[in-house]
Amino acid sequence: MSGDTTPAIACRNLWQVFGTGAEKALTDALARSGQNADEAAGALRRSGFIPAVQDASFEVREGELFVIMGLSGSGKSTLVRCLSQLLPGTAGEIRIEGENIIGADKKRLIELRRQKLGMVFQHFGLFPHMTVADNVAYPLRVQGVGRAERLAKAREVIELVGLGGREATYPRQLSGGQRQRVGIARSLVADCSVWFLDEPFSALDPLIRRQLQDEFLQIQAKLKTTIVFITHDITEALKLADRIAIMRDGKIVQIGTPTDIVLRPVDDYVREFSRDVAKGRHAKVASVMQGGAEDAGPDDPGLTTGMTLDAALARCMQLYEPVPVRDPSGAVVGTVHPSDLAAALQAEET
Ligand SMILES: Nc1ncnc2c1ncn2[C@@H]1O[C@H](COP(=O)(O)OP(=O)(O)OP(=O)(O)O)[C@@H](O)[C@H]1O
């Protein structure tokens, strides 16, 4: 997280308020409340407006997989529709790779959508009369790429999503899961730098869903695209996310790593999400590690920062002394006391 690199997305004090005259109503409400967002949102609600996104500020780093989670109606889709400028936003600023896209003219927005901002929604809207290859190649056709080149590129990404050999198939001949893959391939082909996915796997049965999540992570590891991913499924969020933003009633109530969300929820709403999650399977050793380097003794259990608490605890069962923790390169970066591992897990049981 270096300080001087431009974030892929920077969102500042973004509001999306629904209702006639929302812009003026928001300005007035903020002025009356002394710029207090909670008070202003409350006043807007009482006057019949819907503050679907309330004063959202966050940054997404290049190559980061940023998940937005929250109950139905909490504002996830609205936020993402603002980020991709399908909705204009009532106030605030959105920068994509440094460029403020609020207020960009129509022509620029079309360019941005073609070249930078990829979108995949739950219902992918494949063209029924086009083959898999033509569906996938479609964004390139829009960009004016010649037929041979676009089909070659489409073939590459169709392979990547595991549908090699099905290029000439029509969508109706595919299963739901396969169609999702075609949709994913279609967004990959456009080579967008930022990719928005709104519940892309939610209509799938659990087994296919897990499989697609795994494949999705593999694709992401290869391509390192910046991704904003909406889900209301905590297990999916914890599995995929580098960081998670949790929304409630239009407001982002917590942004953190999966470990933060599981071990350090800011309130009962967030805690409720992760109540049934097996903490030890998601929280990492780094979250309970102390600074300082302990020399590896004879009992070094070989802990690493990215190991889950469950895995670490299993290695430390018989140990009572602080043990070293290594980073992925093998350098000792801190220590952890075995009892802290157990305590971190127990704290959440109560
Ligand atoms: N075009 C619109 N006009 C008025 N209200 C809207 C509009 N779009 C969304 N809303 C309202 O904004 C709030 C947030 O909706 P949004 O669809 O963003 O939630 P969500 O978290 O994505 O929900 P879900 O998980 O059910 O898709 C809801 O109260 C919704 O009714």
TrEMBL record:
Keywords: ATP-binding, Nucleotide-binding. Signal peptide: none annotated. The keyword Nucleotide-binding applies. InterPro entries: AAA+_ATPase (IPR003593), ABC_osmolyte_uptake_ATP-bind (IPR051921), ABC_transporter-like_ATP-bd (IPR003439), ABC_transporter-like_CS (IPR017871), P-loop_NTPase (IPR027417). Residues 38-274 form the ABC transporter domain. GO terms for molecular function: ATP binding. This is Glycine betaine/L-proline ABC transporter ATP-binding protein. It comes from Lutimaribacter marinistellae.
